[in-house]
Amino acid sequence: MITGLTGDSVIRFARGVRLQHDRVRERWIIQAPERAFIPDPVAAEVLKLVDGTRTLGQIVAELATRFAAPVDVIGRDVHVMVSDLITRQVLVA
Amino acid sequence: MTETILSPMSLLAELTHRCPLQCPYCSNPLALEPRRNELSTQEWISVLDQAAEMGVLQVHFSGGEPMSRPDLPDLIRHAVGLGLYTNLITSGVLLNEKTFPMLVEAGLDHVQLSFQDIDTANAEHVGGMKGAQARKLEAARLVAADGMPLTLNFVIYRENAARVPQMLDAAVEMGARRVEIAHTQYYGWGLANREALMPTAQQLEQTTQAVEAAREKYAGRLTIDYVTPDYYADRPKPCMGGWGRRFINISPSGRVLPCHAAETIPNVAFPDVRHDTLAHIWRDSPLFTMFRGTDWMPQPCRSCDQREKDWGGCRCQALALAGDARATDPVCSRAPDHERVVRVLETLPAEPPPFRYRRYVRATDEVG
Ligand code: SF4
Ligand code: SF4
Fold first, then answer.
1. How far is CA A77 from the centre of its chain?
2. What is the pLDDT of residues B133-162, one digit of tens each?
3. Interval B63-91: pLDDT, tens
4. In the prediction, which pLDDT does B366 show?
5. Top-level CATH class of A12-92?
6. Is the predicted pLDDT of residue B279 greater than 90, yes or no?
7. What are the E-state strand segments in A1-93?
8. How far apart are CA B111 and CA B177, in angstroms?
9. pLDDT of amino acid B367
10. C or N terminus of chain A, fewer CB within 10 Å?
11. What residue spans define the domains of chain B?
């Protein structure tokens, strides 16, 4: 887990990485240097909210509303996922 | 059985064969395309439009040296506008503080910068260009300073194999996120210079150890892609992820190929974008359908459990080594012609012969 990642951290994509809708194959993909990979459906929902202005807390709140789920449960999962994507140089906080 | 035809994922756009360097391992064909045959800007734009329409997601601008084409920024901008992920594969000798900002402004996503060696004297001996190393180092500095993701590519051969540890240290110092330690692949000029380039088994082992050590040392800071020479392997690589499955290569004159070495395949017409649409070529041209899927396979591939993993290996290598593009890739230990690979390795000369440098046959084709 990335230390220092809090609800106030603004989440952005690393330079050269983006989420893109693959219209021909009807799925979301993460485009990155020398690789493209397919996010699982939950990760795709999170990444769609990453716009370089939203904080981690705002992303969690948004998802909690959208999926009518408790903030603390969603918060834990999203925190783990975002940490992992930071380690993999997909996101920066 | 009819094979499922997937949409291509990735396009290698070889904009030109012109290049200020003359690397003897270059994967370009021996017959280099002169400038007068190159596709125009408009023709490349149409290729990009068609590729995006078909489902291509990434475009790799390559060559030769793609920065020899003054319209590179326009092509990048157009590709970005289509939502394509843009990668520049460059030697860096033309990347400077005048040219790089134009690429940044066009929206380029990523640079892959190649080095002949980390030792300047040998790098310039192999590349055949004085002063190239300083230009490459400056190119790396400019890209890193901008913050654009940078991958360094070191091509490994007999003469520089011992310096892999220094290459990896230098990559970190240069601010690269990824580095490729890629043993020479024996196609085109690389094949013509095989005896001079092929490392020994012991050298290969040393480079593997150096890569493993650096993966530990730089964990979390540097991703290392390691490509071995498959002559030393027991199983072939799934060349291009399978013939006509994921990948399209366009030559400078617009020939559409399943891989960059496919122009060696005999007795088949080479489709080109000046005469046909990309979609039609991909789906129906004899060149793309001839080795697609598994129907074409001879034994032992036909009944092998690996056939949809490695797709029988590389057709161009089968041609180069067994004299038949339909043969099982001789790299495979199950291949009837595997002996030939063993013999190449057993008969490597103790003293490497001089390089045959990558050059245009006619001096008039070279300039520009
Ligand atoms: S391998 Fe060398 S000669 Fe070939 S295109 Fe790259 S830099 Fe130029
Ligand atoms: S026999 Fe053919 S399919 Fe089987 S491993 Fe060898 S090359 Fe691959």
1. 11
2. 999 999 999 999 999 999 999 999 999 999
3. 999 999 999 999 999 999 999 999 999 99
4. 47
5. mainly alpha
6. yes
7. 12-13, 18-22, 27-32, 35-37, 91-92
8. 11
9. 41
10. N
11. 10-232
Task: Return the CATH class of domain B10-232.
Answer: alpha beta
Q: What is the mean pLDDT of chain B?
A: 92
Average pLDDT for B258-268? 87
Nearest-CA residue for ligand 1 atom 2 is: B23
Residue A22 CB-half CA count within 13 A? 23
Residue B1 neighbours by CB distance under 10 Å: 6
Could you tell me if the CB of B312 is within 6 A of ligand 2?
A: yes
Domain ranges of chain A: 12-92
Which residue type, as a one-letter code, is found at position B21?
L
Query: Are the CB atoms for B11 and B60 separated by under 8 Å?
Result: yes
Q: Is the pLDDT of residue A22 over 50?
A: yes
How many other CB atoms are there within 10 angstroms of residue B286's CB atom?
A: 11
Contact criterion met (CB < 8 Å) for B178 and A24: no
The residue type at B99: T
Q: Residue B9's closest chain A neighbor by CA?
A: A36
Q: Is B331 in the pocket of ligand 2 (CB under 6 A)?
A: no
**Cβ B26 under 6 angstroms from ligand 1:** yes
Nearest CA to B43 out of B31, B51, B33 is that of: B51
**What's the gap in Å between B358 CA and the centre of ligand 1?**
8
CB–CB contact A22 B177 (8 Å)? no
Please report, to the nearest 10 degrees, the dihedral formed by the alpha carbons of residues B269, B272, B274, B277 taken in order. 110
Contact map slice: A 52-91 vs B, CB within 8 A: 87, 89
B246 lines ligand 2 (CB under 6 A): no
Q: DSSP letter for B234, please.
A: S
Q: pLDDT tens for residues B29-50?
A: 888 999 999 999 999 999 999 9
